[in-house]
Amino acid sequence: MLTLAYQSLGVVYGDLSISPLYVYKTTFSGKLSLHEDDEEIFGVLSFIFWTFTLVALFKYIFIVMSADDNGEGGTFALYSLLCRHAKLSILPNQEAADEELSSYVTEGPTDTSQSSALKLFFDKHENFRKGLLLFVLLGTCMAISDGILTPAISVLSAVSGIKLKITELHENYIVVISCVILVGLFSLQHHGTHRVAFMFAPIVTAWLLCISGIGVYNIFQWNPCIFHALSPAYMWKFLRTTGVEGWVSLGGVVLSITGVEAMFANLGHFSPYSIKIAFTCLVYPSLVLAYMGEAAYLSKHHEDIQRSFYKAIPEAVFWPVFIVATFAAVVGSQAVISATFSMISQCCALNCFPCVKVVHTSSKIYGQIYIPEANWMLMCLCLAVTIGLRDTNMMGHAYGLAVTTVMFVTTCLMALVMIIVWKKKILSSIAFLLFFGSIELLYVSASISKVPEGGWIALVLSLSFMAVMYIWNYGTMKKHQFDEENKVSMNRILTLGPSLGMVRVPGIGLVYTELVSGVPAVFGHFVTNLPAFHQVLVFVCVKSVQVPYVSENERLLISRVGAKEFGMFRCIVRYGYKDLRQENYNFENRLVSGLIQFVETEEECVLKPTPSKHTLMDSNQEDSLVHSLCDFQVMKSGNRHLEYSINKDESLQILKAKESGVAYILGHSYAKSKKSSTILKKFAIDFVYAFLSKNCRGPDVVLNVPHTSLLEVGMNMDTMSSLADSLKPSSNNIGCPPQNGSATIQDSHPPSIIASSDSTLGRHLAHRLVQIGVNDVFSVPGDFNLVLLDHIIAEPGLNNIGCCNELNAGYAADGYARARGVGVCIVTFTVGGLSVLNAIAGAYSENLPVLCIVGGPNTNDYGTNRILHHTIGLPDFSQELRCFQPVTCFQAVVSHLEDAHEQIDTAISTCLKESKPVYISISCNLPGIPHPSFSREPIPFAISPRLSNKMGLEVAVEATAAFLSKAVKPVLVGGPKLRVAKACDAFVVLADASGYAVAAMPSAKGLVPEHHPHFIGTYWGAVSTAFCAEIVESADAYLFAGPIFNDYSSVGYSLLIKREKAIVVNPDRVTIANGPSFGCILMKDFLEALAKRIKRNTTAYENYHRIYVPNGIPLKSQPNEPLRVNVMFNHIQKMLSGDTAVIAETGDSWFNCQKLKLPEGCGYEFQMQYGSIGWSVGATLGYAQSVPNKRVIACIGDGSFQVTCQDVSTMIRCGQKTIIFLINNGGYTIEVEIHDGPYNVIKNWNYKGLIDAMHNGEGNCWTTKVGTEEELIEAIETATGEKKECLCFIEVIVHKDDTSKELLEWGSRVCSANSRTPNPQ
């Protein structure tokens, strides 16, 4: 007991004990002034003493603490007592059997006429029951607000004392120090109350001894007559002298008892006697002495009223007391934090708060808990109050209003408890209410006057919490009411069984429901769509009872559903509002043990006049009763009871079913308001309740259901209007219950195969992606694709790369496809689809096979004329599809499982064959549903090879060879379609055989090997590499393999090539000069065949070699001379090797990177056709992910980088070692050269600082900023040396007019092409 009393100091009394820090300061913060006769100080002390004595000592310690609910305290504990004794329960599913629980104690004195009349009054008037609930919620929410305000005011008050010694310390530093302490406090909570108490108890003890000792010192030092203030007469004198100002100042006096409600709420963490001992023996006398000592000091130092506590500390002990005060302030917050955890846990159990994770932190004290979500929510709100207000006086006003409201609620509930529970006379209750209620109302009225000066914070916080609680309770009760009204008749289901082809499968099926009687409508929905259920079916109802705890041997309540041959049972799992719901500790064995005990004792129950329900009485038998079947056989001889059990046919059937596996069937009913509902109810249900339901912990998490054995069945509440509707077979494919493997139905009905739970659409798609060579998918989660992403993540061969936005996910898939041959991005419906559309259009223009997979609407929503979120507000869901049609080669909308297999495979094969993106929309409710069409191991994916027309191929090769043989100096030019035609190697074969000069179009750089002995450079018209254009345009024949001629690649249509000299080879067609044209000929086949027939001719290359002059070396920079772009790319050239790859962004990087000489094996990518600025960031992410053995070097301009920079953070998260050169020249350089204007100037960013913020100390990232050649050299050495395993970001500062000569020429020609006048009509 003494140990608990000692621990309680650290948890329960911390808040109460630190009140001296701010009571006098807040009381005298208004217009109240001090006079020479000290009546104000004596009056305030008198109010503090008698308030502390009457409320804290007499009311709470002597009276309220006796009204515990099986050891639990707090507002909800009092309400729980009233609910049990007066049938005020707000919980559904309450049964008479619940009253037989050992903790459901309602015995006591017989009802008096007054208590009976009060019970009858509440029973007849439902509105008063609802009003009482709202009243309780108000008190609870005000108490939760205390959990936010107490740490803020306590810590800030304590830390503020340092300003007395360090006067120049700015207020901002005080706030920062307070915030650091608060973050540390909340970070300690996961260690549990038990450990926290042992850490904090010595601090509070030392604090109480310090303030009491200082109080005694101040009394004798400054005013020994201060004891006179204990006379109540001084309270009357104070109010008479100060009038309204004195009344208003009482809002500060009430802060002296702020911790008493937390003391009551924390009752479950300790015992009532331990709390009473600690209070009466140490806390009460220490605080009284502290208040008296501070008043004595103030009586002689009126000028120190706003810093009296620290001023009253003797100089010699100031710093030790300051340190203890700071620690005590931290500890003081612990009381309300622990109390808040208790209250939120109770609210969850009583359906007044969304489900959250509750962790029990002590194996000895059952009530000690920790709630992670609540902890971090409290911390964020506490920091917001601290940073936002920065004023302890304003916090004190809010704090006082919250505390007084909670105390008044407790007083009112206690008055009801005295009549209904304790059966006291109504006069005693009224006397209690009038005496203590009048005191608290006095303080409430004073605190309300402070609402404009900070009190509004408590109102806003509490009303916000109260709205959430009431809406959650209202929605939950409406859902339960709906479930009750739409229960399904089991006879009806069994009658329809033959017509539905209903069969029973081996195993045990656990159907979770909120009902304690009847069959839930969701089960009828399930069996009409999948007419099969398990050999042993158990309807499991997990419910809360209006008691704090339910013992383990009373936890399960088992009964039979229907006739014995049905093999169906009901198991009600009961919890108290303080119990930990964690049934993963052998729940299946416990349940089977209970079922066996029930069936074996059922006959005895039938013979005796007892209810046909069975409570699991001996929890110690579960390990011996439920094991595998072979274990039972071994144990026969040693256990007669077990032998008797196995001889029971039904017991044996249950054990065999357990061996076949246990499946969990979880129903989801989604609430939706009626059309006739008011706007307020629609907002509450359709928005607030829906949002809370979506974001709280789901029932499968709360119940710890194994995911491998889980099947979820969903229904919209507005669609389940009647029993008949529930039993109509629908088009929805619900799938089958999960098993521990596939199962064959063995019953009197014809055999039917139930697909394995792994044979799902999501798993099939994931396998297909692996089979086509995809190891990484790029996604942005949204509510329509989350289940699909679960299956992607579950596939061992796939890695999900979460991107910052859909556009970058599409760009990443683009970059991935360039290296791997196919890329995948997964986004959500419409908002995600339309966001990724730009990237898909770019992939289409670049002939890249990208699978764009979109999570689509639920199958039940198609054709219903409903308007869904994430749409443009029309019931037509095809708007996204129509947008994708022009930029994809195939579109699949998967809304039925029957053809899903075919649609997915067709889409994938079309994507690979056409080398274009495809669009696949998959309804959000389909990925997790098994279907027979998805075999467990999908058949390996293969595409029928495309073949050339042999006769056409021979004719085309002959005609081309004849055409080229007449030429004197023919050349070969490779184009970007070499990739889509998979003809890069064939092009090299032709180049080797022909001896022609070999050039590459700009968009084919990286596809044509630049180490080839006859390579002459990039052909790009007027901006070609040196001497390349002269050779190409002077040739008398040129073969273009896979070209794309657009305004960019033709430099504003200014190429000097003639059609009659050209042979154009496309992926499936060859055109010679102005004709003829040969179709159905694959480029790869054509180039290989032509290499065997062509005559070798090296004239063009010899001419090139004859006139070629090597590029000049850029002028050497002077020391500290600003860096030039040509110097930078000269150094980048030296970095290139076969282990690197270059990504060039749209802009001047196009032209500078074109001049780089790529060594063998060095990759190169840029987006020439589509030219979307910002493409390179996402593409770099995808490309680097696809070739982890290469180091990617990305050259990006600042304007482009601002569009898509976010996913540099994803590169860091993925551990990529890319080197990014960010060229900072202050604008859109390429647009400046085409057409200049002020719109081409952008706001300059601190790009290095931006990446440092993304890095945030997580992962490997190194950043630098360079402005000279010396700095660049040093940065490159670091990036390729000690930081070679890091992502390196080098911001390069260059002049805004520093551009390549090629861009100047190209820009003027494109500008000329853009500004052509309209043709005459």
UniProtKB/TrEMBL annotation:
This protein's record includes keyword Transcription regulation: no
Boundaries of every K+ potassium transporter C-terminal domain copy: 506-717
Biological process annotations from GO: aromatic amino acid family catabolic process to alcohol via Ehrlich pathway; response to decreased oxygen levels; response to stress
Residue ranges of every copy of the K+ potassium transporter integral membrane domain listed in the record: 4-494
Transmembrane segments: 41-62, 132-153, 173-189, 196-220, 246-265, 277-297, 317-337, 369-389, 401-422, 429-448, 454-472, 821-844
SUPFAM superfamilies on file: DHS-like NAD/FAD-binding domain, Thiamin diphosphate-binding fold (THDP-binding)
Membrane topology, record value: Multi-pass membrane protein
Main location: membrane
Molecular-function GO terms, alphabetical: magnesium ion binding; potassium ion transmembrane transporter activity; pyruvate decarboxylase activity; thiamine pyrophosphate binding
Keyword DNA damage: no
Cross-referenced Pfam families: K_trans, K_trans_C, TPP_enzyme_C, TPP_enzyme_M, TPP_enzyme_N
Keywords assigned: Decarboxylase, Ion transport, Lyase, Magnesium, Membrane, Metal-binding, Potassium, Potassium transport, Thiamine pyrophosphate, Transmembrane, Transmembrane helix, Transport
Coiled-coil segments: none
Annotated function: Potassium transporter.
Family, per entry: Belongs to the HAK/KUP transporter (TC 2.A.72.3) family.
Annotated protein name in UniProt: Potassium transporter
